[in-house]
Design goal:
heterodimer, A: about 230 residues, mainly alpha, B: mainly alpha
């Protein structure tokens, strides 16, 4: 019996690593787009690289580059980009329980708390697989995102457009694939997801980008309040 | 405010936000309501993000047939129980094909 359980755990870990590598490669190379956008926006190559190394959260990085490109106010632009990364704090809240990392490992793990790694970690059936998936996707994404930021920044103009290859749909497709099993098994998850979509899209015309996704957390509050014990 | 200051503030701020969530006290997470909230967060936020990345452009609602088609193809692949990597390839391939035909 013990052997069977061990084999199951190894198998779930392997599956998590495979999933993390697929998403890591597909999304990691979009650093090309960020590097190119950053330099086109007026950042230097080293500023583009520093942003990817330090901030390491795509949406905020693009937001700051956009403000610089439009010659907007840097203080307001920085605050807006920071607001965009507010959801990572909520992801951290979830991952604290899923990963159970402490001490120096937690300090390191914190840098990796983003959309993709959260999606991979929460989609796994056990803690071992969640940890394997989180660290694999974090390492793959961090290395590739920074490497491709540099390549994109250096090679601005001479690169193929990632959108022409359909790479801009990889992240949403991956998030859908990861949420799929939960949506398939639970009405509560379906209503939560639908409420999140409706809130975010309804808020989009009225609020600065980044805020609508953060506002979708209200759907999670709703699920917490309405979801009784025992309902999935 | 120079661009470098901006980059440093953003880098430190983003890290602090990530760490703050990850360092939530154990006792807080053990409360059933907080646990349910934390479990529902990725579902609500990732679903919102899917919608934002698919049907908005620079903070405005915008229908892009390529991205919408790619996501629909991904959903079809998932219904057919395709493996993860194949779902991503089908989504990107569909979006690329739609763009190629309409450009």
């Amino acid at each position: 019996m013990q052997d069977v359980t061990d084999m199951d755990t190894t198998e779930t870990r392997r599956a998590a690593i495979r999933q993390a590598l697929s998403l890591g490669f597909a999304v990691g190379i979009s650093g090309l787009a960020f590097g190119a956008t950053a330099v086109t926006s007026g950042l230097t190559v080293w500023q583009a690289c520093a942003l990817s190394l330090l901030a390491f959260t795509g949406a905020s990085q693009f937001a700051l580059a956009g403000v610089i490109a439009s010659g907007g106010n840097l203080l307001a632009g920085t605050a807006g980009a920071l607001l965009l990364s507010g959801r990572n704090a909520l992801y951290g809240l979830r991952l604290a329980g899923v990963l159970g990392e402490r001490g120096p490992r937690r300090l390191l793990a914190a840098q990796g708390v983003i959309d993709e790694t959260t999606a991979i970690a929460v989609g796994q059936p056990d803690r071992g697989a969640a940890r394997a998936g989180f660290w694999t996707s974090f390492a793959t994404l961090y290395v590739l995102w920074n490497l491709t930021t540099l390549i994109g920044a250096l090679g601005t103009g001479s690169l193929a457009d990632p959108a022409a290859l359909g790479l801009d749909v990889v992240a949403p497709a991956a998030f859908l694939a990861i949420l799929w099993p939960r949506l398939a098994e639970s009405w509560r998850a379906r209503w939560t997801a639908l409420a999140g979509v409706v809130i975010a899209l309804a808020a989009t015309p009225f609020l600065p980008s980044g805020v609508p996704v953060l506002l979708a957390a209200a759907a999670a509050v709703g699920a917490t309040v309405l979801g009784g014990e025992g309902t999935k | 405010m120079s661009v470098w200051v901006s980059i440093l503030v953003l880098g430190i701020g983003c890290y602090a936000l990530k760490l703050a969530g990850l360092s939530a006290p154990r006792g807080l997470l053990d409360r059933p309501a907080v646990g349910r909230f934390a479990a529902a967060i990725p579902v609500a936020l990732l679903a919102a993000l899917i919608a934002i990345q698919t049907v908005t452009e620079r903070g405005e609602l915008a229908f892009d047939p390529a991205r919408a088609g790619g996501l629909l193809a991904a959903a079809a692949a998932l219904l057919a129980r395709a493996p993860f990597l194949l779902v991503l390839v089908i989504a990107a391939g569909t979006a690329a094909a739609i763009r190629f035909v309409y450009s």
